[in-house]
């Protein structure tokens, strides 16, 4: 890894959420700020990861795992993390965002992404960190924590996705209906509604792939209440859709029920689940199943909130959950868990 620190002095404010939280902007997020360090990490298989560190270099380490799969991190996502309290590490996963190669599928699977989290942790000299992820990021956070529970101090999960075939096929079936790739009369009886998407989006023929990418991404926009995109998909959007097909066609490289079964290995960790109860992209059923398997985790069901993690209701709930879980982590470190449990 090579990296250069930049942009700003170390904060001298207290790190505790109850003692020195940063001012929140009008949109409910923390103020925009540049990373204080950026790195390129060679993780093998031809992949170079882009890694950035934001906030307080001496703060509580926090790993943020973006959604998708294939989405990459955005500057606005930095604003979920209290810059006085957290040393937030944002990683563009393999093939995503500013990592290279864009859209690379070789050596790109869930176990590799889990191993990458450990590579980043070791490279940055972090002993344990709070892990936060939404949507696909919630799946990856669970997979990582279950594989390496000693590296994780706590979890904040938003918009739960467990990677089950039921979730994937339900979404693909709805998208296929919307795009008229499946006849409306028998869409419910198609054994593999993902197949028409895979064959088109992974096609080497642009005239076949690009319309399917546009339809696939527009379906997500529709579910989130956004307008369709007028312009054709660009290279970043094509890469995102191809990575999604690669993961979804392989059941996210997970065994059936793996993440729910694995809760037993992490139930001792401070954790919070934040779920929009009107989420149409990652419907609340998966979150309800995780909650049932993990009753020790704090639950925040947000009425009338959808999927967008940066919309005010979900952003504010996530920020609050991060503060509470961080309080518990710091209390455990100081032997005061019983005072705030």
TrEMBL record:
Q: Which GO terms describe its cellular component?
A: cytoplasm
Location(s), subcellular: Cytoplasm
Keyword annotations from UniProtKB, A to Z: Aminopeptidase, Cytoplasm, Hydrolase, Protease
Q: Which Pfam families match?
A: Abhydrolase_1
Q: Where would you say this protein principally sits, based on its record?
A: cytoplasm
EC category: hydrolase
- GO terms under biological process: proteolysis
Q: What EC number(s) does its UniProt record assign? A: 3.4.11.5
Molecular functions (GO terms): aminopeptidase activity
Q: Which InterPro entries match?
A: AB_hydrolase_1, AB_hydrolase_fold, Peptidase_S33, Pro_iminopeptidase
- Catalysed reactions listed for this entry: Release of N-terminal proline from a peptide
Query: Which intervals hold domain AB hydrolase-1?
Result: 61-307
Active-site annotation = 135 (nucleophile), 279, 307 (proton donor)
Q: Which family does it belong to?
A: Belongs to the peptidase S33 family.
Q: What is this protein called?
A: Proline iminopeptidase
* Taxonomic path: Bacteria, Pseudomonadati, Pseudomonadota, Betaproteobacteria, Rhodocyclales
